[in-house]
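User: Could you go from structure to sequence for me? I need the amino acid at each position, not a summary. Structure tokens:
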């Protein structure tokens, strides 16, 4: 069963990665760069600031910060503990994929997927009652995560697990923030 899952993972990576072309390499390299999403982060901070009391604004920023610190630690520990090679380092498939970019460290699970889905999910949980369109923010982690497959630095299972871990962290920290006094009903 595990070997079938890993074979599906390799086959899916090879297929999705092979859809790429030199024409789009620059686009996907830009998509994968956190710095290129700075305006989105500024917009989220602005929306949270605009729609909350000062206390709730700071509590939400503290929630985001705490979540990302613990998530980053978790990503590091799991990657080091599992030690799964990145696709371009795997001699079994590295000649079968397009390697557009390399990245340090191990592959499982994707920190890009986990962090982007955690940020997006927590933002949605905080802002969904005030902005019906906030769900569109999920376009960011979808593109961001797919870029990792396109570039040849992650397997699909790395992305799927990273996505699930990111969403789980967001829900957990959202519930903790409510428990510690966040008031989303009476914010301005």
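Assistant: Here is the amino acid at each position, in order:
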């Amino acid at each position: 069963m595990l070997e079938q899952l890993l074979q599906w993972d390799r086959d899916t990576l090879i297929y999705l990665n092979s859809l790429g072309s030199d024409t789009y390499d620059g686009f996907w390299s830009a998509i994968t760069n956190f710095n290129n999403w700075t305006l989105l982060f500024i917009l989220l901070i602005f929306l949270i600031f605009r729609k909350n009391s000062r206390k709730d604004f700071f509590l939400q920023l503290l929630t985001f910060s705490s979540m990302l610190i613990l998530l980053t630690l978790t990503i590091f520990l799991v990657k080091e503990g599992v030690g799964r090679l990145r696709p371009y380092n795997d001699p079994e498939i590295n000649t079968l994929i397009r390697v557009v970019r390399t990245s340090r460290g191990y592959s499982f699970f994707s920190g890009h997927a986990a962090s982007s889905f955690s940020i997006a999910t927590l933002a949605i949980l905080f802002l969904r009652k005030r902005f019906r369109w906030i769900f569109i923010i999920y376009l960011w982690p979808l593109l961001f995560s797919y870029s990792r497959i396109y570039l040849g630095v992650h397997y699909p299972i790395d992305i799927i697990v990273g996505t699930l871990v990111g969403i789980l962290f967001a829900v957990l920290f959202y519930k903790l923030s409510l428990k510690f006094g966040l008031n989303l009903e009476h914010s301005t």
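One structural detail worth keeping in mind: The first helix runs from residue 2 to 18.
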